[in-house]
Amino acid sequence: METQNARPISVKGPDGQKMTLADLPSPNISRWVTRRKAEVVAAVTGGLLTREAACERYNLTAEEYEAWERLYARHGAKGLRTTRLQQYRR
After folding, report:
1. Which of 4, 9, 15, 79 can pair with 88 through a Cys bridge, CB separation 3.0 to 4.6 Å?
2. Do 35 and 79 meet the contact criterion of CB atoms below 8 Å apart?
3. For the chain, give me the number of helices (H) and strands (E)?
4. Cβ–Cβ contacts within 10 Å for residue 80, how many?
5. Do 2 and 9 meet the contact criterion of CB atoms below 8 Å apart?
């Protein structure tokens, strides 16, 4: 992990590859698939973005992001699938 001014330049993404700010989903994304959610959570967890910056950049509520973070921590990327919400939120 390379750093610049106490913020990393890159972090390990959900697929194990190096990820930078340029690799994150576009701020005007309209369709959230599992991979994109996992990339945002990995960026925040790795320190590439703050939670507040991610919520502002992607127009997310704090509760929505926290749900992603919690599901990702418990179930990995599969927990972020919208088709499995009922199964993973128990």
Report:
1. 79
2. no
3. 4, 4
4. 25
5. yes
**What local confidence, expressed as pLDDT, does residue 81 receive?**
87
85: amino acid identity, one letter: L
Ramachandran angles phi, psi of 2, nearest 5° = -90, 145
Cα separation of 89 and 82, whole Å?
11
Residues 6+ apart with CB under 8 A from 69: 41, 44, 45
Cβ atoms of 50 and 44 within 8 Å: the answer is yes
- Residue 84 pLDDT greater than 80, yes or no: no
Query: How many angstroms separate the CA atoms of 6 and 3, rounded?
Result: 6
Residue given tokens 């973070």 in the structure block: 69
